[in-house]
Amino acid sequence: MAKQGTLLVVDDNRNILTSLQYLLEEYFQQVITLNSPVTIPSLLQREAIDVVLLDMNFSSGINSGNEGLYWLREIKRLRPQIQVVLFTAYADINLAVTGLKDGATDFIVKPWDNAKLVQTLQEAYAKARGNEKKGKQASQPTEKSSMYWGNSSVIRPLRLLVEKVSTTDANILITGENGTGKDMLAREIHRLSPRRNGPMVAVDMGAITESLFESELFGHVKGSFTDAHTDRVGRFEAADGGTLFLDEIANLPYHLQAKLLTVIQKRYFIKVGSNTPQPTNIRLICATNRNLDEMVHNGEFREDLLYRINTIHLHIPALRERKEDILPLAQRFLEQYNQQYLRTLTGFSADAEQRLLNYPWYGNIRELQHTIEKAVILSDGNLLKAENLQLAEVSGQDAPATHEESKEDTPLQTLDEMEKNLVKKAIEQCDGNLSQAAAQLGITRQTLYNKMKRHGI
């Protein structure tokens, strides 16, 4: 059989990459290997990749598979037609199900069987070619917006401001509660910007350990420390010519904030173990759910760094402040999961609509999305009913409190207090299962640990 297709293999083990190169170049026209996933976005801009064999773990000592799932989602977002086969030494059926649900084609466990591996990758290539024939428009997903703005009065000014500032290179700070869609807004800004054809690199600052901060953001050279067996590309370098999105910026420890400030001010960085300054050409977007002005006042966040990242401030309102958008959003998610789970639900019953409108949605759009997904899976018939939503009963849910009652019965909480209560509630509902609680909150397990530590939970 003639060799066909381009295969990308991503694994941090050089021996594995060498072995797979020798094995798979007999079956594929081109085999590209990467020992770090951070350059995947830029590589996808240059190469017509058909299949990706993606390792699940890249950071030393971390075997959760969350890195692999993150890069799987990035690949499917940038190039939905690419088929991704997950590659891991840890045979976890729940991880496999999550990966398949997020768009992976298959799942291979190390140590692998050569014949089975080749067969799986060839089947993935056949599927990729089949999808390509359906039309080339699918290969340009970044031209289409996945952002749902809505029509509420509180969201319209934000949309106008976003459309105005997206065409500039101004640094942007996005604030809002957990689940409001800060990462989605960052991607929309990138899509509307002149940098749209460049990479969009997202970093969860809450998931980076202090000891690896400089290596992760700025990269390192071979031999710079014990485990530095090869050069590593940092996130600033990977985002060159595009957008760097630093999520959960408030989680960056105070003593590391000066290092970030220096790079932003001087527009160059120095890799760990190197003395050579390297220029950076990125558009910086940061996001947080915390009050940075209050953190500055408390000595937890540098005022000069806040000024640098806050050239333009965009605040996303909570879902309960834009109730006109709840039902259209719910319908949008209903259609999405109808397609994903092959269901034929047409809408919501009257009691379900009332329940959706009256529920407080402290988890915002992310909570609404998860609720609709579960309801679609569990429902029977053509309409989603209130009981399918499985929303926890809240006092006065079917009879919203008057303004006077709300002021008297509901004490005002800070965003930090609300976040603490939400984290505690998720952990209680999941009976102490932190992985499940993190998934319900839509954050990584490491970010959940950081929030628990910060709030003393």
TrEMBL record:
It comes from the Bacteria. This is Sigma-54-dependent Fis family transcriptional regulator. GO terms for molecular function: ATP binding; sequence-specific DNA binding. Keywords: ATP-binding, Nucleotide-binding, Phosphoprotein, Transcription, Transcription regulation. Residues 148-377 form the Sigma-54 factor interaction domain. Gene3D superfamilies: 1.10.8.60, 3.40.50.2300, Homeodomain-like (1.10.10.60), P-loop containing nucleotide triphosphate hydrolases (3.40.50.300). InterPro entries: AAA+_ATPase, AAA_lid_NorR, CheY-like_superfamily, Homeodomain-like_sf, HTH_Fis, P-loop_NTPase, Sig_transdc_resp-reg_receiver, Sigma_54_int. GO terms for biological process: phosphorelay signal transduction system; regulation of DNA-templated transcription. The keyword Zinc does not apply. Pfam families: AAA_lid_14, HTH_8, Response_reg, Sigma54_activat. Residues 6-125 form the Response regulatory domain. The modification 4-aspartylphosphate is found at D55.
